[in-house]
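Worked problem 6 (solution included).
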Amino acid sequence: MAYVSADTRREQLIEAAVRVIAREGADRATTRKIAEEAKAPLASLHYCFQNKENLLLAVFTQLSGEMPIEADPPEDEDASLGRIMERRMTSAMQWTVENPLRARAMIEVTLWAERYDPELSVSFYEGFFKSSESDLRRADTSLPDDELHSVMRVGMAVVDGLSLQMLTNGDKERALRDTATACAMLKAFLDESERNTV
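Solution. The predicted structure is:
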């Protein structure tokens, strides 16, 4: 058997975990099943991650790092809050449409964390929240912080809900159309809110 470095083995195990979690759910994704999927000894999984919890955290970290939640290009300094939200939500949904198994695994791991380590699941969302806030702060907005934070949470909720719908019904085109509709609604709300706060 050829030598496999620890870094390569970690990548193999994370990818195997994504497949098993997407197929069977996080609860049923045992370390044995994941090691078998990776064609790796079970001992190597425990060497690389120590336990299932660390592996699931690595899966979430990997997948959340892949999701291209883009804002407007840096040179577009005049981007509106609605435009930035639209770009972020659309790119997140595009990733879900293009990577349904990975999106399913991400949702599974988030739900697993909520059941077994609620503080961890809160930290998952806080990471997205902080990256959203740094982008949205570039917009020239008169919204107070509490309203801006509410808009950010609504945007995340829309992406979560539309992702679940797409994974359930498999209609990728509808998911993208519904994303465009949600973005248009959010932009209209933001335009009206901006007018009312000026």
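Discussion: The longest helix spans residues 172-197.
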